């Protein structure tokens, strides 16, 4: 049961470092500090009401969202676990408007850390899985304090990204750019062990995730996509679809990595000041990096999300990711909202993007 024959996270990182003979070990040290933070947050989440962890903190963050006690605690844990480490030139968190100042009189490193310390906050009080998300970028001026503009790098430049999920078991899912590996936390040994060595997102799926309460604000291509899924076997897709909505991005991501699926939190007209719900730098980019490294696709529905040039630290954006064929279909609908509508049969019969739809052509 202790699985000590499996690689630990540390062993995995040392092994990955062999691909980079010039590496100093700073990246590995930083990832291990993040993992340390996730262990501490996992304990806090697990103790729940016993440790007075539930409920509101009574404050609002920079985005005007009510902070939960665990949002604030997890933010502090991330900060303390990483800011003395030496590898960092700066850090940005969901919970802080500006980059968090690093301790004075301490050498600056070559990496930037961007994180969502507690994702899925609305689920804390109802005991549903939550998580933490992180992204690591190179500092444009290593050795010096980073400024806000230094963090505005497209997701393609991420060196590493990952998330921890605090569910029935705690897991860390990580990519250092060589695929995706999943580690399960052994609370008795206090370490993460490699349990999912090469996670791949299946190309096809019959499961989608979207917050349907926003449907009146959706754009026509999203409405069309969902309508076609809901139409099931008798509709143009010729297959029944299942639906999930957990309202924890990490939990949705984990499900999609484990068994496929497609997730949409698209651009909508709910709040004109917010083109989308999720934040580019510490939600969409790290999750997009993981998903693409696992062979899936991550998009704004109009372009690959990792290619977006960020404009602000807390920028929101439409986000669609998961099984490649479904994301490509949604992108096609956005590029041409009437694609295939004039001639219902040919689109679904040809050996094209939609050629997986055997049932309809039968
Ligand atoms: O409540 P909604 O609109 O369904 O939004 C759910 C989304 O909001 C989030 O909880 C936002 O993240 P935070 O909890 O870190 O603010 C995502 O995890 C989730 O996908
Ligand atoms: Mg979040
Ligand atoms: Mg959060």
Automatic annotation (TrEMBL):
<dbReference type="GO" id="GO:0005829">
    <property type="term" value="C:cytosol"/>
</dbReference>
<comment type="pathway">
    <text>Carbohydrate biosynthesis; Calvin cycle.</text>
</comment>
<dbReference type="GO" id="GO:0006000">
    <property type="term" value="P:fructose metabolic process"/>
</dbReference>
<feature type="binding site">
    <location>
        <position position="119"/>
    </location>
    <ligand>
        <name>Mg(2+) 2</name>
    </ligand>
</feature>
<protein>
    <recommendedName>
        <fullName>Fructose-1,6-bisphosphatase class 1</fullName>
        <ecNumber>3.1.3.11</ecNumber>
    </recommendedName>
</protein>
<feature type="binding site">
    <location>
        <begin position="119"/>
        <end position="122"/>
    </location>
    <ligand>
        <name>substrate</name>
    </ligand>
</feature>
<dbReference type="GO" id="GO:0006002">
    <property type="term" value="P:fructose 6-phosphate metabolic process"/>
</dbReference>
<dbReference type="GO" id="GO:0000287">
    <property type="term" value="F:magnesium ion binding"/>
</dbReference>
<feature type="binding site">
    <location>
        <position position="116"/>
    </location>
    <ligand>
        <name>Mg(2+) 2</name>
    </ligand>
</feature>
<comment type="subunit">
    <text>Homotetramer.</text>
</comment>
<feature type="binding site">
    <location>
        <position position="94"/>
    </location>
    <ligand>
        <name>Mg(2+) 1</name>
    </ligand>
</feature>
<dbReference type="GO" id="GO:0006094">
    <property type="term" value="P:gluconeogenesis"/>
</dbReference>
<feature type="binding site">
    <location>
        <position position="118"/>
    </location>
    <ligand>
        <name>Mg(2+) 1</name>
    </ligand>
</feature>
<dbReference type="GO" id="GO:0005986">
    <property type="term" value="P:sucrose biosynthetic process"/>
</dbReference>
<dbReference type="GO" id="GO:0042132">
    <property type="term" value="F:fructose 1,6-bisphosphate 1-phosphatase activity"/>
</dbReference>
<keyword id="KW-0963">Cytoplasm</keyword>
<dbReference type="GO" id="GO:0030388">
    <property type="term" value="P:fructose 1,6-bisphosphate metabolic process"/>
</dbReference>
<dbReference type="InterPro" id="IPR020548">
    <property type="entry name" value="Fructose_bisphosphatase_AS"/>
</dbReference>
<feature type="binding site">
    <location>
        <position position="283"/>
    </location>
    <ligand>
        <name>Mg(2+) 2</name>
    </ligand>
</feature>
<feature type="binding site">
    <location>
        <position position="211"/>
    </location>
    <ligand>
        <name>substrate</name>
    </ligand>
</feature>
<keyword id="KW-0119">Carbohydrate metabolism</keyword>
<dbReference type="InterPro" id="IPR028343">
    <property type="entry name" value="FBPtase"/>
</dbReference>
<dbReference type="Pfam" id="PF00316">
    <property type="entry name" value="FBPase"/>
</dbReference>
<dbReference type="InterPro" id="IPR033391">
    <property type="entry name" value="FBPase_N"/>
</dbReference>
<dbReference type="InterPro" id="IPR044015">
    <property type="entry name" value="FBPase_C_dom"/>
</dbReference>
<dbReference type="InterPro" id="IPR000146">
    <property type="entry name" value="FBPase_class-1"/>
</dbReference>
<feature type="domain" description="Fructose-1-6-bisphosphatase class I N-terminal">
    <location>
        <begin position="7"/>
        <end position="197"/>
    </location>
</feature>
<feature type="domain" description="Fructose-1-6-bisphosphatase class 1 C-terminal">
    <location>
        <begin position="201"/>
        <end position="334"/>
    </location>
</feature>
<dbReference type="Pfam" id="PF18913">
    <property type="entry name" value="FBPase_C"/>
</dbReference>
<comment type="similarity">
    <text>Belongs to the FBPase class 1 family.</text>
</comment>
<keyword id="KW-0479">Metal-binding</keyword>
<feature type="binding site">
    <location>
        <position position="116"/>
    </location>
    <ligand>
        <name>Mg(2+) 1</name>
    </ligand>
</feature>
<keyword id="KW-0460">Magnesium</keyword>
<keyword id="KW-0378">Hydrolase</keyword>
